[in-house]
Amino acid sequence: MKNILITGGAGFIGSHVVRLMVNKYPHYNILNLDALTYAGNLENLTDIEHKPNYQFEKIDITDAKMVSRLFATHKFDGVIHLAAESHVDRSISNPLEFINTNILGTVNLLNAARMEWNGNMEGKRFYHISTDEVYGSLGETGLFTETTSYDPRSPYSASKASSDHLVRAYFHTYGLPVVISNCSNNYGPNQFPEKLIPLSINNIKNNKPIPIYGKGENIRDWLFVEDHASAIDLIFHNGRNGETYNIGGNNEWKNIDLIHLLCKIMDEELGRPAGTSAQLITFVKDRAGHDQRYAIDSSKLMNELGWKPSLQFEEGLRKTVKWYLQNQQWLNNILSGQYEQYYNEQYGTR
Ligand code: NAD
Ligand code: DAU
Questions:
Q1: CB-based burial, 35-47: b 16+ in 10 Å, e otherwise
Q2: What pTM does this model have?
Q3: pLDDT > 50? residue 19
Q4: In what order do the strands lie in the sheet with 219-224?
Q5: 220, 99, 213, 219: which is closest to 155 by C-alpha?
Q6: Cα separations (Å) of 182 from 135, 221, 251, 297?
Q7: 2: nearest Cα among 33, 20, 19, 25
Q8: Ligand 2 atom at minimal distance to the Cα of residue 210
Q9: Are 215 and 283 in contact (CB under 8 A)?
Q10: E strand or H helix at 255
């Protein structure tokens, strides 16, 4: 493997994957393609941007011509596809953008790979990064496995489910060497502050209300982002073509319990009396179609490829809090302008 395309590498998970690949594989040429939407931020990659095996191209994956041209120029051996619209609340207010990027954008990449690799698929790989949300919502028991039926319930998860189906269709129809993984909720440094954990860290720091949807009883399975990146590295190199691998933290938390733990850590890190931050918890109108529970069975990935998460949740959460407190400038650069407008639309009128 020589030339690797990573899409969405300026985003949260993508930037951790780019960093891992650039540092671990100096003999690979890593090209990061990203449209730099509101969620894409090259500041996430300042530590590796001058490495000789790293390159960046600002391209929108909905632009089929530009995508094909890039493939023709660079002769990629592998693709790790993370670029997507990723926030459920935004998909509720603006579904079309999710259809365009997540479905059409993925098809553009599949077509370009197929065109370039048609003569010789040997040693090639198209790796599509997906989410556990395609499986829908769990009741009190059970786990999502790789054979759980798809049942997406938000425009975001429906668009990701659709792209997963298309990736599989290109495997069966055209023999494209694909692999897919479906991961649970990630957390860690560089996550855009629209998501629950960084939004709450920022609000607690600024003594603003922490908005909890509904009664805070929804459950998510949290995984530290670097553990997701290490799973992606393993699956990209050792996963089997045509297979799906579920990735999860075996770490289920009710939102309200997670926020109480976060408040405790924030009180300790900010030197506030115990209980101060929890007073900011505010219950707000529920998310439309809010999935009740996600929980992943990662045993296939663990047994087949030997992956396991490295961090305990409280340790990972404290590391994340410290990162946000030490990187206020990173946050300040995001919090103004466009994001402020989104925040007011999403939370201002509740
Ligand atoms: P993110 O929103 O932080 O980053 C997405 C990146 O994609 C940004 O850099 C953005 O600029 C880029 N992008 C968006 N539209 C684009 C377009 N049309 N062309 C080119 N680039 C575009 O997302 P994330 O949380 O890092 O998620 C990355 C991937 O992982 C997504 O595919 C998401 O579905 C999946 N995923 C995320 C999680 C999670 O908890 N965040 C969990 C499982 C799977
Ligand atoms: O499960 C994987 C998915 O996790 C990824 O595919 C998505 O890209 C990612 O955004 C994430 O989706 P969620 O909707 O689970 O993440 P979010 O951080 O938006 O919300 C986590 C939980 O917290 C969810 O139950 C909704 C709730 N929540 C969220 C926000 C933003 C609140 O209670 N208040 C909030 O302000």
A1: bebebbbeebbee
A2: 0.98
A3: yes
A4: 185-187, 219-224, 252-254
A5: 99
A6: 9, 12, 16, 11
A7: 25
A8: 36
A9: yes
A10: helix 255-270
Written as six digits, the tokens of 128 are 């599509």
| Residues 181 and 248 sit within 8 Å (Cβ to Cβ) | no
11, 40 contact by CB (below 8 A): yes
Domains and CATH numbers, the chain: 2-186+223-250+294-312 (3.40.50.720)
Q: pLDDT per residue over 145-197, tens digit each? A: 999 999 999 999 999 999 999 999 999 999 999 999 999 999 999 999 999 99
Cβ-based neighbours of 46, under 8 Å, separated by 6 or more:
none
Q: Which atom of ligand 1 is nearest to the CA of 38?
A: 11
Alpha-carbon gap, residue 16 to 226, rounded angstroms: 7
Q: How many residues does the chain have?
A: 350
Ligand closest to the CA atom of residue 106: 1
The Cα–Cα gap between 135 and 147 comes to 9
Beta bridge partners of 131: 183
* Structural contact between residues 167 and 178, judged by C-beta atoms closer than 8 angstroms: yes
Task: Give residue 186's identity as a one-letter amino acid code.
Answer: N
Does 157 sit in the ligand 2 pocket, CB within 6 Å? Answer: no
Interacting residues of 123 by C-beta distance below 8 A, sequence separation 6+:
1, 77
Which residue ranges have their beta carbon within 6 Å of ligand 1? Answer: 8, 10-14, 34-37, 39-40, 60-62, 82-86, 101, 105, 129, 131, 160, 183, 185-186, 192
Per-position DSSP letters for 53-101, written without gaps between them:
TEEEEE--TT-HHHHHHHHHHH--SEEEE------HHHHHH-HHHHIII
Q: What is the pLDDT of residues 87-143, one digit of tens each?
A: 999 999 999 999 999 999 999 999 999 999 997 999 999 999 999 999 999 999 999
The CA distances from residue 42 to 14, 48, 98, 131, 255, in Å, are 11, 10, 22, 24, 30
